[in-house]
Amino acid sequence: MGKGRHEHPVVATYSLVACDLENGEWGVGVQSKFLAVGSVVPWAEAGVGALATQALANVRYGPDGLALLRDGASADKVVARLTEADDGRDDRQLGVVDREGRGATFTGSACLDWAGGRTGPGYAAQGNILVSEETVAGLERGFQASSGRPLAERLLEGLAAAQLAGGDRRGQQAAALLVVRESGGYGRMTDVAVDLRVDDHPEPVAELRRLWEIHDVLFGRTPEEDWVAVDETLREEIRARLAARGYVDESLERAFDAWIGTENLEERAKGLDRVDPVVLAELRRD
Length: 286
Known about the structure:
By secondary structure, the protein is an alpha+beta fold. The chain folds into 2 domains: 213 residues, Aminohydrolase, N-terminal nucleophile (Ntn) domain (Glutamine Phosphoribosylpyrophosphate, subunit 1, domain 1), CATH 3.60.20; 61 residues, no CATH class. Helix content is 33%, strand content 27%. A hairpin with a 3-residue loop joins strand 4 and strand 5.
């Protein structure tokens, strides 16, 4: 069968589709021997669900699957509806998690060994052209073992465990992490809380984790009850540290705001009555 305009050979891929219902998050983590895999495989919509389309990927599964999820279809129903209508289903692989946290996975009969998937509460794990089934078992194991942590971290733990278990038979190239949450993005004006991509790298999962750690410093959330009250002693420390960095102003607030803006930490700052401990740690960094 020749490739149609909606088909992409996203070979040697493993992915984890998952949700955190308590925090209203859905997301996808993926690694592949395929350039810029994040541009094809992961799809998610806040309050609706998430899915991964791979192997000889039908990219229409993304928007069409989200539309079905939006209309209330279960993960199983979405898999059935998408694959039954697709003559190329034997070459496809698909993972879906719906708004209620139900997972479903599909592996076409023509996908290259090893290929298959597993599901459980809140996740669907799948892969093709893998070293063995242990790669998918690693996805599952990493996700389950990190229960209680933020969804982005759990997806990363799944990817790391999968790679440690053998990963793709053809090697590594690209990875991506997508997490959505209502008003969870920059300025609370978008639902895309995390959208990180490693397009071409010898160790894409490790590089993806490095990017996530930077992202978390800049855009993560510390509960405001854990913020530090700024007394006079701390104000003077902040003034001295800002001055050492070249931020000198008669108004400490203006100097602080200038530094915050330069360092892209504005998502973690609200004046100087109280300060996020992450911001304080960055200011104290040598």
